[in-house]
Queue: 2 jobs
Job 1
Amino acid sequence: MEIIISNSSEIPIYEQIAGQIKSKILSFELKEKELLPSIRSLAKDLRCSVITTKKAYEELEKDGFVSMVPGRGVYVSKINRELALEEERKKIEDLMEEIIVIAKTNNILESELKEIFSILWEAK
Amino acid sequence: MENVICIENLEKKYDNFTLKINHLEVPKGMIMGFIGENGAGKTTTIKAILDIIKNYKGEIKLFDSVNKEKAKEDIGVVLDEAFFPEILSPKDINMVMKSSYKNWDQEMFYKYLKQFNLPEKSQIKTFSKGMRKKLEIITALAHHPKLLILDEATSGLDPVGRREVLDLFQEFMQKEENTIFLSTHITTDLEHIADYITFIDKGEIIFTKMTSELLEDYGIVKSSREEFKSIDKKDIVCYIEEKYDVEMLVSNKKSFKKKYDFVSIDKVSLEELMVLMIKGVK
C-alpha cells in the first residue's frame, strides 16, 4: 500500500491519510476484512505522530470504512460501495450548489463556470 | 488518560531565575516535545524530574509514584552533557550497564552499535560528537525503559543521524505503554513525530497542546502597517513589527480569514511560533 503525505499541503495530515485509504477501499485495492497497519506502525512508517494516525483511523471508522478492534487491529469494513459513492456524490452536489449561488449573485455565466471547471479539471 | 510524569506546583528559585511549573502532565504512550529558548528552564525541569536537582517546592510523580528510586529502572535518560567517562569503550559500557540494570539487553545494545557503525572496542574520546550522542541514545534504550527522557538529544547530530535516531524513537513507541519526553530546539524534528508540545518561557509553562492542533489551527499573518491598524488586537495572539511588514500570530486561521479577508495567512512552523511567542508583543 502506498500513502503519500505532503507536509506543505493545507490539508491536515490525518485527512490526507484517511482520504488515501478511503480511495483505496473504494477502488478495491484494499479488500473487505483486510488487516491494516496498526496505529503505531503506520505512524512509524509515515514518520508522523501516533495521534495523527489514530485520528485518521477514527475518521475512517466514523464513515464506516474500517473497524478498530481493540487488541486485534484495524480491519477494512464491509462497505456498500454504491452507497459510499452516493455519499461522495452528495458532497459534490452540495459544494456545487455553493458555487452556483456565488456565480448567480455575481452574474457569472454558466459557460464561464464550465470553462473554469475544465481548466481546473485538466490541471489536477 | 494515564500520566507517566505529573508535576504539581513545582518551584525552584535561583539567584536570577525561578522555575515555576503549576501543572504539567505527560500522558502514557505519547511523545511530548518540550520547547523553549535557551535558559527558559527546560534542562532545570528535566533535572528536577530526574531528582538531579533537589530541594524544590511542589511534587513530581513518575508512574504515579513520588518514589523516584523505584522508577529508575524504567527510565532511559540522555542529557545534554555527556555522562560516559572518555576512556571507556562501548564494550566497557556494556559491562557497567549489565551490572546496574536488571533489564539490560546486551544483544540489543550490540545490534544498535552495529547499525550505527560504532566501534565497540574504541575509547569514547576517539568518537565524534554525533557518535557519542548515538551511543548515549542506544544505551538509554537498551535497558528497555518505559519512559525516555531526552534533553537536546538530537542537537549534536547531522540531518541523516537525526533521521536515524527519530526512527529509533518511533520504533520504541511501537509499544503502547512507552512514552517519550524530549526537549529540543530543533523543532522540525517534533513537527512530525511529537503528539504534544509543551512550550516553556522564562521558567513558566505557556501551553501544552496537540501538535496537530497547533500546526493546523495557528497561522502567521503578514500585513502592511495600514492593514494592521484595522485588525482588532483581540483576534491575534501576538505581533512583531518588522521593517517592511507586521507579522502576527493567530490561533485560528479559518475564523481570522473569514473576518479579515484582505490578509494572507500562512501555515506556521513550530520555529516561527516559538520566535513570535517569545519576541512578539502581546
Job 2
Amino acid sequence: MQDQDYILFEAYLSRDLSLDDIQIFENRLKTDLAFKDAFQLYKQTSNFLEHQIKNEEKTEAFKKNVEDISSAYFNKQSKTKAKRINPWYYSIAVAAILALGFFVTQQFSNPVYSDYANYGTMDLTVRSAQNDVLNKAEVAFNNRNFKDADMYFSELLKTDNNNMELQFYKAVSLVELNKYEKADALFDVIIQTPSVYKNKAIWYLALSKLKQGDEIACLNVLKTIPKDSEDYKQAQQLIKKLK
Amino acid sequence: MSQKKSHEDQKYIDGLVHNNAFIIQTIYDKFGPKVINYIKQNSGDEANAKDIIQETIITIYHQATEKGLKLTCPFDAYFFLLCKRKWLNQIKKTGNKEVTINEEVLSKDDDAQELAFETTLFEEQHSLFKDMFQDLGQACKDLLTATFKIKSMEEVAKSLNVTYAYARKKKSLCIGKLTKMVQESPRYKNLKS
C-alpha cells in the first residue's frame, strides 16, 4: 500500500470523507482484495493501539491486581503444603525421642518395678461366669483399683483357698498397695506349691523386692528363676542392670 | 464471535473486564487447582503454574477488553484448555520434557475448543503487534502514544509542536508503517495460514 492509502484509511475511520468519497472507498473494498486486506489490518492495528495505549493504566492496574491475588494464592498453597508436612516431621521426631528415651531409660537408669511389672489384665470371668464377686475382683484389678481388688480376692479365697491364680493376683495387688510383707509371704506360699503360677510368683517376688529398694534380695530371688521360665530372659537383663 | 447465547459463566469474563478482585480470586480458588495439578503432573512445578495461570488471565482480559469476548461454554473447560495449551507450547519450546497426560483428556466440548482456539490466535496477534510496535521508530511511537492517549488531534499537534494536518497525516503513516511491519513478519503469515 502507498502512503495515500493509509491516509485514506485514517480519513475513512475518522469519518472525514465526503459521502461520494465514502461510496468510492466502500466500492473499492468490495472489488480490491489487497486493498480490503490492508484496510482490515490497518483497522486491527489501530484497535490494538487504541486498546494498548489508551487503556495502559487500566491494564497495569489489572495486572497488579492479578499479581497480588496470584501471589497470595500461591503463598497460601505452599503454606498449606508446609503445614501438611510438618506433623509428619513432628511425629517422626517425637517417635525418635521416645525411642531414644526408652532406650536410655532401659540402658542407663536404675531399673524400677514399673518397668517390669507387666501383669496386664486378668480374665477370670470366662472360667467362672456366675460369680459376682469374681467379676467385681476382676473389674477392680483391671481398673488398678487394688484396694477393692484385694478385698474381693480375700473374700473369694475364704472359700477357695487353694486357688493359686487368685492368690497370685492378690499378691500382685498387695505389692501395688505397698503391703510388701503380706505380699511376699503370699508369693512364698505360691512358690512352695506346684502350680503354673510358681515361676510367675518368683519373678513378682523379685519385683516386689525391687519396689522395696532391696536390690540384694531382688538379685537373690532373680537367681532362682529357672531357665524354662518365660521371665528368665527379663530376669537376666535385670540381674545385669543391678550388678 | 459466534451468534450463540452466552454462557452463565460470562460473569467471569465481565468480572475480569471490570478488574473485579472478588471474581479474580474466585477464578484462582475454583479453577486454579486443576491447572496446578496438570502442570505438576507434566514436568512443571508450582512456579510454572503461577505464570501460566497469570498469563492466561491477562490474555482473556486483553481479548475481552479489545474485542469483546462472549463465552459460549463453561469457563472451567475454556480456562483449563487455554492453560494446558500454553503449558504444552512452553514445554515444546524448552524441549525434552515429558508429557504424561493424554493431550485430549479433558474437553470434548467443541465450543470450548473453538473459543480456546480463538483466544490463542488473538494472543499471538496481540503479542505480534506489541513486538512490532516496540520496533517502530521513536518518532512514530511518541506520536501514536500521544494520539491514542490524548484523543483530540488538535491537542496532539499542539503538544508535539506540529500542525494539525501534519499530525493527522503522520498518524496514518505511522499506523501504516506498523501495519506493513506486521504484514511482512513471518509470524503474521503463520497466523494467517
